[in-house]
Amino acid sequence: RLALIVADDPDEPAKLPDGEDGPAKPIVTTRLQFKDDDSGYLDDKRSHLRLFELATKKDVLLTPGQHDEWSPAFSPDGKTIAFATKRGADPDRHLNSDIWLVEARAGGKERQLTTFEGADLDPYWESQLAWSPDGTQIAYLQGGDDKWADYAPWQLAVVDVASGKSRVPANLDRCMSRPKWSADGKGVLVLLEESRVTYLSRIEVSTGKLEQLTHGNRFDYNFDTRAGTTVVLTGEGDTPNEIYALDGANLRALTKQNEALRAEVDFRPLADFSVTTADGTRVDGLLMTPFGY
């Protein structure tokens, strides 16, 4: 079975008699959010969670209504699907998304899991929620209150599936992303932003202890970890990213795509620097010189 996010069926385009030209069908919307950067103009159609059966090629709508869902994930036993959504009378008018659960069957009951009055797993953060190996907890990202909008950092949060109680294991003034559980279920791996760098790090769920797993002047962009093996998509900023295996504290290159490009591409060095403003504030930056400099 597959858990899919599927947009409602589009309207049939307006048809004119054969051989006649005319204006395009006008766009009519009554939504507050009438447009976004990815999809363009929006109408009343929504993106919903569907369950697709591979054997029968049939799918079932699990989450009808005037709201959108994203980031579905099966529980380890396959009986429940967790997902993120914005609900309420008019979801366009707030940023309060939450994690919900639904039984993975036709007519399955829904249950709201998180109640934080802010963004839980905003789709802009490009991160999935993650079930713990034993299925008792879910790791996800929690934003700030609506009043802080994009100024609040995205924090790793963990919610207990049975009680709905959530907590932030390590309350840091830095953004995190792409949470994934360690094989032992005791820690969650995340990408942690620092000044000019992003590192793969591990957070102990019970204590909030932070362990940095990668080092140096690099920007870790994505990773995966399974059965004790961790791979990282990362780079140092002056070349496209490569895939590395994490061996203890060292990164071992698995791909070497950039070697073939060096004969024809002028990879410019990337330098970090800091300046002090008139009021004494330190501002950090990165400098890359242009071609042939």
Would you kindly provide a written description of the structure presented here, covering whatever features stand out?
By secondary structure, this protein is mostly beta strands. Helix content is 0%, strand content 44%. The protein has strands at 2-7, 35-36, 40-41, 47-53, 58-61, 69-74, 80-86, 97-103, 110-112, 118-120, 130-131, 137-145, 155-160, 166-167, 176-181, 187-193, 198-204, 210-212, 219-226, 229-235, 242-247, 250-253, 270-276, 282-288. The strands form seven sheets. Strands 10, 11, 12, 13 and 14 form a five-stranded antiparallel beta sheet that branches. A four-stranded antiparallel beta sheet has the order 6-7-8-9, with no helix packed on it. The protein has a four-stranded antiparallel beta sheet with strand order 15-16-17-18, with no helix packed on it. A hairpin with a 2-residue loop joins strand 21 (242-247) and strand 22. The protein starts with a strand and ends in a 5-residue tail after the last strand.
Entry summary:
The chain has 293 residues and is mainly β. It has strands at 2-7, 35-36, 40-41, 47-53, 58-61, 69-74, 80-86, 97-103, 110-112, 118-120, 130-131, 137-145, 155-160, 166-167, 176-181, 187-193, 198-204, 210-212, 219-226, 229-235, 242-247, 250-253, 270-276, 282-288. The model has no long low-confidence stretch (mean pLDDT 92).
